[in-house]
């Protein structure tokens, strides 16, 4: 299997001796403040759309940990998102919708599902990894489709009660939005720190040159497996937010199309930058949900065209728009 | 006790016996060169020694420990370190980040053996990284990205990366390949200045470098050991001259 | 006892029919994949295109004219689509697998949506041609004749493809390219033409499989990803670029699907994954693969 050349621009390379870190935080703070204030100015419908963007954005961030940081392009990542969503929905229905129980259960089940299926996938490389993750994702989607007694089959898991905080259900779109925002920011921070930790540096080493990492003594398969499980856990948490927001989980949420759209979000946003995929996710959801209705529900047709255009038009292919940034983080 | 030994190592590719029942003993602290004409089996033997490739038969010992069935990763953690023939590094990292990867893996003092590297204190890692970069002459290039380094500098970085693994045995695959004479001279000085307790085994085409650095030379020819001895013995050997000349003649026939 | 045996023999026959269809579908995917490392995610969309062609032509009622016409039209569409896909992936030869996968994924999405726009959301039935739409008595039960026909056609195509790959110049080039692409390029063969030919033939087999499978599976939205996954599992289990591997993998998956659905309907998908995982843990390169897909 030929080595794929390092096709992903290292947006996450942490400067060893940070000089301007203080200023780098300014835009992040502004973005957080704007996001936090958004429901005060937006109509409930727009707030709900923004909530969906955040949920999908978190899924894209978790996928970027695999695709951009570790160099493992997964086509089945929605499986763990969906597993978390079903688990959170089921717990909300049958045990308690009290925060943080569904969130923790969703994250746990996402992680366990990734742990149970990931070992086969991370032992493979290149196009095999694509194929295996695709197959694993689709098989889990079929489980969701057929396991009527737990998942509600093709109709999905309906009637999920609203998440409760301190006994009060979060029925207001704004409160629900803030819940999703807080969890989303928290998990984004976790992934961000993970990608910049020594563990993240090792993952980037594997992305750049796996044989060399083995030669300096890193058991790379174990690291890839750990990244796979971590990404599955975050995706599962994102799934629990989906269950809280939609209050309905269907097999489509863990299917091939969701997985492909998440990958598209990562690719157009810029793999490896972590924040880029959030913007990519926003674009993808807006195209599907905002432009879709004007195309008689065939937003996916447009997305198919976007896929094709992305491959031909982005000069580094999957390196994404982040690779087009006029300046790149470089040490002097 | 020798630092690195192999006994009866064979490896075939289809009908070709690339390495055929090779015995090799590398003494502790040696500067041991592995030479031979093209197709002698040097690279195959090198890969069998590092664990990248499995042998069909034979054993490999690191010190008194049998490492025959162990992976490259395990061998590295037992003190075997290597540089690769084609400078093969990490495109998105700086020189310092590259070396820090190995420092964190093996600990600033060496001998670290952790699955999870993060408890290592950062100042200690940075200090060790700077020390290693200085040792290979890249002290002023710490913040440079790998793609911006020259070919010679990448080879120097390879050596720093290998040294960061705290090796007892260091294997170098054609360290001087593709280097200018000036770069080659700098590399020679660097290798000559390595601590005496580190055992070095290197595959090399540049015979000047071999005879300048090595205290022991093993000549491979057609997958077998032709001669193993001091540089003077090798220089004086008719069999070695014959092997090199014979190949040269054959190559003339093939190319003309 | 005989009842149990008969029921399971029926299941084995069903498995053979599924396996025969899967072989026709997967062998093209496997060869395209083994030859140029292109993961063609539009392969399932080609199958569904064939199924919709069959549904459209037989909308006026079942007839041999409609059935054979659908086979011919699907074959032409398959050839053209294969040629187009080959041309589209050509500029990406030096790019990552992810780029090729994204491209074919985009094509798959476009094709699926266009079919949905043209034919609507509801599943369409495809009738078997007259004379084959009945059933024959078998082990004391009535067994659909058409499924026996599929088994027969699958067997005939397997022999034909085997002869093509093992006995012809094109086949020799294909095998050589699978084994060592660079070597074939180095001896001066322009393997782009081989690539176009294999892509076109592989796509033709996929659309034809769609017509053949029409009377069993019908034509519906979402069928493309289901058959794509089955074909991928077959390719992974059988090994890259191996006709024999595709055949054995397809027959195996056919049996697992059929028996699994009969015995453990809820868990059939787990059984499928279990088989896949088992093969990959024991033989990472697939049952008949020569190139290892996994790194140790």
Automatic annotation (TrEMBL), chain A:
Compartmental location: Cell membrane
Chain ranges passing through the membrane: 23-43, 49-67, 99-120, 127-144, 175-195, 222-244, 256-287, 299-324
InterPro entries: ABC_transp_permease, LivM-like
Keyword Membrane recorded: yes
Main location class: membrane
Keywords: Cell membrane, Membrane, Transmembrane, Transmembrane helix
Membrane topology of the entry: Multi-pass membrane protein
PANTHER family membership: ABC TRANSPORTER ATP-BINDING PROTEIN (PTHR30482:SF17), HIGH-AFFINITY BRANCHED-CHAIN AMINO ACID TRANSPORT SYSTEM PERMEASE (PTHR30482)
Name of the protein: Branched-chain amino acid ABC transporter permease
Originating organism: Pseudonocardia yuanmonensis
UniProtKB/TrEMBL annotation, chain B:
Keyword terms, alphabetized: ATP-binding, Nucleotide-binding, Transport
Residues annotated as domain ABC transporter: 4-247
InterPro entries associated with the record: AAA+_ATPase, ABC_AA/LPS_Transport, ABC_transporter-like_ATP-bd, BCA_ABC_TP_C, P-loop_NTPase
PROSITE patterns with a match to the protein in the record: ABC_TRANSPORTER_2
GO MF annotation terms: ATP binding
SMART domains listed in its UniProt record: AAA (SM00382)
Protein name: ABC transporter ATP-binding protein
Species whose genome carries this gene: Pseudonocardia yuanmonensis
Taxonomic lineage: Bacteria, Bacillati, Actinomycetota, Actinomycetes, Pseudonocardiales
From TrEMBL, chain C:
InterPro entries, alphabetized: ABC_transp_permease, BCAA_transport_permease
Keyword Membrane: yes
Main location: membrane
Keyword Transmembrane helix: yes
Annotated keywords: Amino-acid transport, Cell membrane, Membrane, Transmembrane, Transmembrane helix, Transport
Pfam annotation, one family: BPD_transp_2
TM regions (residue ranges): 12-34, 41-60, 66-89, 101-119, 145-165, 196-217, 229-251, 263-282
Membrane-topology annotation of the record: Multi-pass membrane protein
Family the UniProt entry places it in: Belongs to the binding-protein-dependent transport system permease family. LivHM subfamily.
Protein name stated in the entry: Branched-chain amino acid ABC transporter permease
